Amino acid sequence: MRTAPRERRQTGGFTLLELLIATVVAAFILIAINGTYFGALRLNNSTQDRVDRDLVLYRTLDLVRRDVSGLMVPPKNPTPPAGTFAGQFQDTPTDSPTQEFSATRVSPDFYTSSGGIDGWNPFSEVQVVTYFLAPATDGSNTKNLVRAVTRNMLPVEQATTDEQTLITGISAVEFDYYDGTEWNNTWDSTATFTLPAAIKFSLTFAQAGTAPALAPIELVIPVVVSTSTSLTTALQAQSTGGTQ
User: Fold this and answer.
1) What is the CA radius of gyration of the chain?
2) How many CA atoms lie within 13 A of 164 on its CB side?
3) Which pLDDT score, from 0 to 100, does residue 214 have?
């Protein structure tokens, strides 16, 4: 007795071509996801680096502003030189608590009242602040802006100076002084018997690789402290202008 041939079952599945197409599509999707993720990660890292650098920059500018705004009046008589709480304002001081500092000086000695007073600090608000450019410590061809602070103005022995690295990756820093007519890159209160009308602080970041050079960042701070000489000069200028 002959039996009818058994029918073959129709089994469902993917062909090799379908698997290849699905693999290619999945690969393109993973490449797109990978590019998007790492692009967002790089953007986040660069944004965070920029925020961190800007915070350091704003802190530096704020310290410079406070130091200049709190300038003490220099003694009228240049001899003897620097007093205890208010010395001469010279871009190249003849007598300074940071005279032996090995870095490059970029500012005068600021005899200023910008020091903080609290329950743990035995010193007054008067301090001497000087800015220097020192070679970078990371091996790069850049410089660090260093703020040297002398707090103890009445030392029993030798006064000590604290060094604070404010910002790194710098190529140049400059202080300029406004005499009421034009900007000068030098100032000597023993010759002028007065302080400048304003001080401009310029900071330039070092160029990073092939990136375009950044423009200098400038901060102009008016000097509100007036000596008797500057007041006399201002009154004479006002009187002369009124008679014309």
Assistant:
1) 33
2) 14
3) 81
Rounded distance between C-alpha atoms, residue 145 and residue 122, angstroms: 27
Residue 221 phi/psi, 5-degree rounding, is -120, 120
Q: Which single residue is written with the structure tokens 């996801």?
A: 33
Distance between alpha carbon 112 and the CA centroid of its chain, in Å? 19
d(CA 130, CA 57): 18
Q: Give the 3-state secondary structure of residue 242.
A: helix
Q: Is residue 156 helix, strand or coil?
A: coil
Q: What is the pLDDT of residues 98-134, one digit of tens each?
A: 777 778 899 999 999 888 877 777 777 889 999 999 9
Distance CA 109, CA 123 (A): 18
pLDDT score for 242: 47
pLDDT, one tens digit per residue, over 146-157 is 999 988 877 767
Q: What is the pTM of this model?
A: 0.73
Residue among 206, 135, 211 at smallest CA distance from 170: 206
Residue type, 240: T
Q: Is 35 helix (H, G, I), strand (E, B) or coil?
A: helix
Per DSSP, the three-state class of 138 is: coil
Of the candidates 107, 131, 90, 89, which has an alpha carbon nearest to the alpha carbon of residue 226? Answer: 89
DSSP strand pairing (127-135 vs 143-150)? antiparallel
For residue 27, the SS3 value is helix
* Both tokens assigned to 187: 């100032």
